[in-house]
Specification:
Blueprint lengths: L3 H10 L6 E5 L12 E2 L9 E2 L3 E4 L13 E9 L14 E4 L11 E4 L19 E4 L9 E2 L10 E3 L7 H9 L4 E5 L3 E7 L3 E2 L10 E2 L2 H12 L2 E8 L3 H10 L5 E5 L7 H9 L2 E7 L2 E2 L3 E7 L2 E6 L3 H19 L9 E6 L3 E2 L4 E11 L2 E6 L9 H4 L3 E5 L5 E2 L4 E6 L5
Parallel strand pairs: 5-6, 12-15, 12-16, 13-14, 16-20, 18-23, 21-24
Antiparallel strand pairs: 1-11, 2-10, 3-9, 4-6, 4-7, 5-8, 17-19, 19-20, 21-27, 22-26, 23-24, 23-25, 25-27
The chain binds adenosine monophosphate and magnesium ion.
Length: 412
């Protein structure tokens, strides 16, 4: 029997990162950046005004106060998107809008509110006053956003391996990156097996149940960053399983559920080994003791247990890290916290992933069982905030024991 860690190490050995592809920036959100991105230019690219006002030389309005305002002739108008017609002549001011380039010679912008001009008149093509009354002094640099103050040309703004967030695609846009190098997404073929299974849209019939695993596993594949391809429900026959595997043989990975417990392995095993290899591993964990792993036509194959909780937990423990390795990101990326056990919990000595609800008491996180811990009871996962990991060999967990919890974000 393998420990969880041994089994995982053996699995991860065979995976390495997928190649890079270039996608349009609009499609890059959520993808894994494959190469670092360096700024091709400063951001902002040029010094510009941070507000609507008048560009001046700070020294020329140093004496301005409400009681002793300084009047300057207005020598130009600079709407956003245009260029100043000339450098700022001395002893003048230029009307400037937010985001417009600062004229050469100017070193500050007086907010329109500190002048006798009105914000309401501040629009493109409005008449330019001949002169403006400045009612307050400004410091050098006030009201100015310097070129490169956000990002310097040449700076590494994003590192390889980052899952691109909304602000990330924003900065890429700001730097003119329209094609983004990302790691190709792993395509995962997901297959349910079992004569008792019906798709969710079909009415329930006596002796049958709806297939829960495939839709949930497809969701987990997407949550990690893969592309899920549902291969349908295969009946418990070698032919049915084999033909679905054939259709999946161009995927990066095949994940099937059920038919891997000792009594039921034969069908899946025979179908897989027609074009590949399969070992049934007994892994020292609960839920999910049997785990089949091998390949079909060279495509890594995971045979997960059929019970929904076992299927989802074994996916989380073994398949998710494999996908993360394909994506070139850390394989321990699931968020973990430490929690105190709020009630006595029991285990049979296998490493146990107990479904728990977490409550916060001051700074402490307290974990309570979600009730039935049957590996068939998917509600135990639905009601859980995470999986409390009880280590191998611990059969009774006293109240107050501090243990790691794998937290669910939006994923499980
Ligand atoms: P098996 O590994 O085929 O013995 O299945 C173990 C248990 O999981 C049985 O109770 C099955 O009915 C159940 N099961 C298998 N596949 C699914 C599925 N896709 N959705 C829900 N339950 C399933
Ligand atoms: Mg079955």
């Amino acid at each position: 029997m393998y420990s969880v860690d041994e089994a995982l190490a053996r699995i991860l050995e065979i995976f390495s990162p997928l190649p890079t592809e270039r996608v349009r920036l609009e499609d890059a959100y959520g993808r894994i950046l494959a190469e670092p991105v360096q700024a091709a230019h400063d951001l902002p690219p040029f010094p510009n005004s941070a507000l609507d006002g008048y560009a001046v030389r700070a020294a020329e309005v140093a004496a301005a106060k409400a009681e002793t305002p300084v009047r300057l002739p207005v020598s130009g108008d600079i709407p956003a998107g245009s260029l100043p017609a000339m450098p700022l002549p001395s002893q003048t001011a230029m009307r400037i809008m937010t985001g417009a380039p600062l004229p050469e010679g100017a070193d500050a912008v007086v907010p329109v509110e500190q002048t006798d001009d009105a914000p309401s008149r501040f629009e493109v093509n409005s008449t330019l006053p001949e002169s403006v009354l400045i009612r307050a002094a400004v410091g050098v640099g006030n009201g100015v956003r310097q070129g490169g103050e956000d990002v310097r040309q040449g700076a590494v703004v994003l590192r390889a391996g980052r899952r691109l967030r909304a602000a990330d695609v924003g900065i890429l846009a700001g730097l003119g990156v329209a094609q983004v190098p990302v790691v190709r997404r792993p395509v995962v073929a997901v297959l349910s097996t079992g004569d008792e299974l019906l798709p969710p849209h079909m009415p329930l019939m006596a002796g049958k149940i709806h297939d829960m695993n495939s839709v949930a596993l497809c969701a987990l594949v997407q949550a990690v960053g893969g592309v899920a391809r549902f291969m349908g429900i295969a009946a418990d026959s070698v032919e049915a399983v084999y033909s679905r595997l054939e259709a999946a043989a161009d995927a990066d990975m095949i994940v099937s559920t059920a038919g891997v417990s000792v009594g039921t392995l034969d069908v899946v095993k025979e179908a897989v080994t027609r074009r590949g290899t399969l070992s049934l591993w007994r892994v020292n964990m609960r839920p999910g003791k049997p785990l089949a792993f091998g390949d079909f036509g060279g495509v890594p194959f995971f045979g997960l247990p059929g019970n929904p909780v076992s299927a989802l937990v074994t996916f989380d423990v073994f398949v998710r890290p494999a996908l993360q390795k394909l994506l070139g990101i850390p394989t321990d990326a699931a968020p973990q916290r430490t929690a105190e056990v709020g009630e006595v919990l029991h285990s049979d000595g296998r490493r146990t992933y107990a479904r728990v609800k977490l409550t916060r008491q001051a700074e402490r996180l307290i974990a309570f069982s979600t009730g039935t811990q049957s590996s068939g009871a998917i509600s135990s996962l639905v009601n859980a905030d995470g999986l409390l990991i009880i280590p191998e060999g611990m059969t009774e967990v006293p109240i107050g024991t501090r243990l790691p919890v794998r937290l669910f974000d939006q994923d499980m």
